[in-house]
Write a structure and sequence with these properties.
Layout (H helix, E strand, L loop, with lengths): L6 E2 L4 H7 L3 H17 L12 H19 L12 H20 L8 H9 L9 E2 L1 H16 L8 H22 L3 E2 L14 H9 L14 H7 L4 H12 L4 H4 L1 H6 L5 H17 L2 H4 L3 E2 L9
Parallel strand pairs: 2-3
Antiparallel strand pairs: 1-4
Helix pairs in contact: 2-7, 2-8, 3-4, 3-7, 4-5, 5-6, 8-10, 8-13, 9-10
Length: 299
């Protein structure tokens, strides 16, 4: 396929309705479903293969970490350290070369679109914030790697348990290092201040689990014991480590989920909530770009 440059399609509330009927929306929702299905009933300890291509994409995070550690933080900035803008400039400057180097020659032309999503995956370098609008760009980056044939369906589980997990680890480092503001009003678009997708994939892991039920994730001892095996509990552990006070106050939406009786209902409810509160919200999706791989216009 000829790979085009991108345009931003979701400029108005009317465009949101078109976006919800676009090929890009269908592709991303289908991709979330496929990843969700691959994680069902499995812990991180299950057996799965990480391809060399998958590892080559994870090395891009190593390059970002190296740059992060080189750039001095600006002094006397309690929130939203402006040094993040310097990191952003480096990512935007270098990512074309990083991505191009891991792509085979016959699909190198896709770097234009892949770069657009990759560059937006780590936050707004202008506003010095991060939220679900950036998280969805990383999802789009991964989805495009499947669309061009770089990954195959056998890579789904490693995409969740390895690549997406590595992305989350990097994002937690970036969020803490630069004290990024949550995008939106106090992270209103995320389940915690920043993320949403790991709670979907993480709840899928618990389907059929005879030991851990939804009311367990608010019990610190359970979280500490099992956080290395499950994405959902890994996210809760991070919240417990960085926030103080009652869980019901600092993470009210998550607290509400702990009252849902089964993981099946949690998982299905989170996917519905993601469609309504993330994918259908203009402030989240307004900066999303479209090209030949993820198209805005119906074919």
């Amino acid at each position: 396929a000829v790979v085009s440059t991108q345009s931003t399609g979701v400029k108005s509330l009317d465009d949101v309705r078109m976006w919800l009927q676009s090929p890009a929306y269908s592709e991303l929702l289908g991709f979330i479903t496929a990843l969700n299905n691959s994680a069902k009933g499995k812990s991180y300890k299950c057996s799965y293969e990480i391809s060399d291509r998958m590892k080559s994409i994870a090395t891009l995070f190593t390059f970002i970490k190296e740059d992060l550690e080189e750039i001095p933080l600006e002094k006397d900035q309690r929130f939203g350290n402006k040094a993040f803008r310097v990191l952003g400039e480096r990512i935007v400057e270098k990512s074309h070369g990083w991505i191009s180097n891991v792509l085979p020659d016959d699909i190198k032309e896709a770097v234009v679109e892949l770069k657009a999503y990759f560059d937006e995956s780590f936050g707004s370098y202008i506003r010095v914030d991060y939220g679900t609008g950036h998280e969805i760009n990383f999802l789009a980056f991964c989805c495009c790697l499947y669309k061009i044939g770089f990954f195959s369906p056998s890579d789904y589980i490693a995409t969740v348990f390895y690549l997406f997990r590595e992305y989350l680890i990097l994002m937690r480092k970036i969020q803490m290092w630069y004290r990024l503001e949550p995008a939106g009003s106090h992270g209103v678009w995320g389940l915690d201040d920043y993320q949403f997708l790991p709670f979907i994939f993480g709840s899928a892991q618990f389907l059929g689990n005879p030991v851990i039920s939804p009311d367990h994730f608010v019990v610190p001892e359970v979280v500490d014991k099992h956080c290395d095996d499950y994405m959902f509990l890994e996210c809760i552990k991070f919240i417990n480590d960085v926030k103080t006070g009652p869980f019901s106050e600092h993470s009210n939406q998550l607290w509400g989920i702990s009252g849902v009786p089964t993981w099946t209902k949690v998982n299905g409810g989170l996917i519905k909530m993601y469609k309504a509160e993330v994918l259908a919200k203009h402030p989240v999706i307004q900066h999303f770009v479209f090209g030949s791989l993820l198209s805005f216009d119906p074919k």
